[in-house]
Amino acid sequence: MRKHKSQPPRTVKVLCVSDHIDPLIYSNGIKERFKSIGLVLGAGDLELPYYGYIVSSLNKPLGFVFGNHNLKRISFYRKEYKSFQTDVSNSSFLERSFGSTYLGDRTVKMSGLLLAGLGGSMRYNKGMNQFSEFQMAMKILKLLPGLLVNRIFRGRWLDILLTHAPPAGIHDREDQCHRGFKVFLLFMKLFKPAYLVHGHVHLYDLNATRKSTYRKTTVVNAYEHIVIEVEVPR
Prior knowledge:
By secondary structure, the protein is α/β, with parallel strands linked by helices. About 20% of the residues lie in helices and about 25% in strands. The protein contains five helices and 13 strands.
């Protein structure tokens, strides 16, 4: 009996961006340079028109979360900020979303991958989109129904957790603003995403650590941009 050769696993190249407009992306060469990209993830602190530029240039889906800066359009996505004034109050939904998908506090499937988003940073003043450890834990509880659906019907909890802040002790800094969340460590332990992609921590040294491993999860700092290749489970 002839055995069929097993097909190699399908992978998706994911362009991850955060915190700073990258001249390699915001250029005439974006289509050629990133032509093999299948998905784009924005880890926060970038203006939505930048996401719109990427989507219109690459014609690929983009999911994002908000960070702790560049929040003038957050009121369209978070009801607790509806009272804040914005200069785009009469914009259409397309103009508000710029062709991208908000992933904050929800689970979605994009390009065959199971994604969830947790935006914001550790609370350090009275600004918007900042959270205590307990508040971030409550946000994770909101993800549980979607995660359970993934586990039951797709055989896994999650492929990528997209955050703005890093996990505690991994790529974070000692100051309160840039300190990571301990609850992200528990999330990775319980739900075993293949990747946790974050922003928030700027990298000015080419030798700075951008990738680390925690248990079964690869933690990636998306500052400016990085491309990762993610296997799509069958």
